[in-house]
Amino acid sequence: MSAVLHTSGLAKRYGRVVAVDGIDLDVRAGDVYGFLGANGSGKTTTVRMLLGLVTPTRGEVELLGERMPRAARRVLPRVGALIEGPAFHGHLSGPANLSLLDAAGPGGTRRTRRRRIADVLDQVGLGGVARRPVRAYSLGMRQRLGLGAALLRRPELLVLDEPTNGLDPQGITEIRGLLLDLNRTGTTVFLSSHLLAEVEQLCTRVGVLDRGRLVLRDELAGLTAPTGATVVDTPAPERVRAVLDGRVLSVDGGRVLVRGEDPAEVNARLVAAGVPVFGLAVDRPSLEQVVLAAARTSADRVDAPGRRR
User: Fold this and answer.
1) Are strands 157-161 and 213-219 parallel, antiparallel or unpaired?
2) Does domain 3-223 match CATH 3.40.50.300?
3) How many angstroms separate the Cα of 81 from the Cα of each of 133, 157, 158, 163?
4) pLDDT digits over 234-258, tens only?
5) How many CA atoms lie within 13 A of 262 on its CB side?
6) Cβ(213)–Cβ(21) under 8 Å?
7) How far apart are CA 25 and CA 5, in angstroms?
8) E-strand spans in the chain?
9) Whole-prediction pTM value?
10) Sign of dihedral through CA atoms 258, 262, 263, 264?
11) Which of these, 275, 281, 236, lies nearest to 254 by C-alpha position?
12) Sheet strands side by side (includes 32-36)
């Protein structure tokens, strides 16, 4: 599958501070790619370099098969982007703001442009309120409008930095559904976020950034695959240990981790021995556990001499 976003040794230094440290990204056509990291880890700086808004200290960026920022004029019209808080003219309505942005777009009649803007506003849930001046919009509404601006040109690649910022749970669910629909119709999505639970429900591949370093990148399904163990919820953990001698990996209150990934087999043995069981589940790590483990591993490394953050 072809790469739509590729970086090699991408780095950014501000004086003696290393914001991004030699990262290699590979986002393929059809991906919903989660670019994860805590606030301050270098995510937004990376996104700005991808789009040619910040010049890398070193390294290379390719978007849609072309070198950035050299090919920006050809490439960026095919890319939709929402970075940090979107800036709009507060005294103008949502449609008027999008009309100004669309004026630099691919053309078309005034009627087709109005229709395209109306369709985008409906997509992002602003169809009924968009004619208010933007200064009357909530933070979540402004975020929706920013996403609408990113969708105006029906992009091949959508680059989003914290797109659900300011949204309530219903809004987050709606935007998740919209992004999945766009991906199903051919749009590749690159999503920068610190909301791990949201990414876990949305993304197919992830990269984890920690203090400017890319410490992990893989298929999400592989990272959160079953561990080969079963979690037993029981009020009698010591009896579980006695019955399954040698198979108990850990005990945390009433949560017992047992070697073996067939809950039915574990349950049959415990029930036959009269051990009360409240619940069983195949053990698999959450994305949060995976990310925290990768960050801990990164923190344990010894930095090179002279390195400054």
Assistant:
1) unpaired
2) yes
3) 22, 8, 6, 10
4) 999 999 999 998 999 999 999 999 9
5) 5
6) yes
7) 7
8) 3-14, 17-23, 26-28, 32-36, 58-63, 66-68, 79-82, 157-161, 188-193, 205-210, 213-219, 229-233, 248-252, 255-259, 279-282
9) 0.82
10) negative
11) 236
12) 79-82, 157-161, 188-193, 32-36, 205-210, 213-219
Name the burial class of residue 8, with classes exposed (0-12), middle (13-18) and buried (19+) by CB atoms within 10 angstroms of its CB: middle
Enter the CATH code of domain 229-282: 3.30.70
- Give dist(CA 171, CA 61) in Å, integer: 33
CB atoms within 10 A of CB 243: 18
- β-partners of residue 80 are 158
pLDDT (tens digit, 9 = 90+) per residue, 45-96? Answer: 999 999 999 999 999 999 999 999 889 999 999 999 988 767 889 999 989 9
**Complete edge-to-edge strand list for the sheet that includes strand 229-233:** 248-252, 255-259, 229-233, 279-282
Closest CA to 2 of 66, 65, 60, 70: 65
Tokens of 20: 């991004």
Q: Kindly report the length of the chain.
A: 309
Angle at alpha carbon of residue 19, lines to 14 and 23, rounded to 5°: 125
Asked if 75 contacts 232 with a C-beta cutoff of 8 angstroms, the reply is no
Domain boundaries along the sequence of the chain: 3-223, 229-282
Under 8 Å between Cβ of 298 and 231: no
